[in-house]
Amino acid sequence: MVQDIFDKIMMLAKRRGFIFPSFEIYGGVAGFYDYGPYGSQLKNNIENLWRSYFVLKDKCLEINTPTITLYEALKASGHVDEFTDLTVDCKKCKQSYKVEDIIDGNLSVDEALKKNLVKCPTCGEKLKDAHSVNLMFSTEIGIGKTRDAFLRPETAQGIFTNFHLLYRYAREKLPFGVVQIGKGYRNEVSPRQGVIRLREFNMAEAEVFFDPKDKSHPDFNNVKNKEIKLFDNKK
What sign does the dihedral 209-206-77-101 (CA atoms) show? Predict the structure, then answer.
């Protein structure tokens, strides 16, 4: 029932010019979508609304950094070693899956693997030999003598690597915020959820730097009594 509604929404979005499956005339590829005429305008409106809060109202500094990131930067941040998903491959139907996506919701990943309860959702085959897969797209910079790099998995690295310059620009006064809107890339194992989980997507990220000995913020009194309503997926 839920999947039927989701499929209808995706077809409507396609017909109305919001999003199109990328490379559809060549068979398409999971995890990529194009923004149509309405989708592009909607995306721009959301980004500008976001900027109105963080850049105009909160006076955050906005930067724009390359989407290709050096190996050394992502090694230092832990992404090279830790930005992984535990994955299983089905030798029968040639599909790969994230373990956490295909196990019983009442089981932990470790428990499901130990009890041999991981099954292929396509053909029912029992899956073994779980292994970690790094989700970053790797590339090289240069011709001949090259440097290893990745398409950035998030926009934070450019903010952190420029901190010394941004701190000076902010006159060495804390707190200050830095924002960036741009593309992120993750080579997802099984992006089968429409635009919820993509291999190329847009991110809007904010990093706020403060003195750990003085965590006060000049605007805190304006928001301290506001309530945030949270919802779960339980009926």
Answer: positive
The verdict on 93 and 201 lying in the same domain is: no
The better pLDDT of the pair 130, 152 is held by: 152
Q: Each residue of 49-104: pLDDT tens digit?
A: 999 999 999 999 999 999 999 999 999 999 999 999 999 999 888 888 888 888 88
Instruction: Please give the helix or strand (H or E) that residue 42 lies within, else none.
Output: helix 37-51
pTM value?
0.86
Shared domain check, 148 and 206: yes
Residues 6+ apart with CB under 8 A from 83: 74, 134, 135, 136, 153
pLDDT at 47: 97
Produce one character per residue of 52-64: b if its CB has 16 or more CB atoms within 10 Å, e if not. Answer: eebbeeeebbebe
Domain around 162 = 2-82+135-211
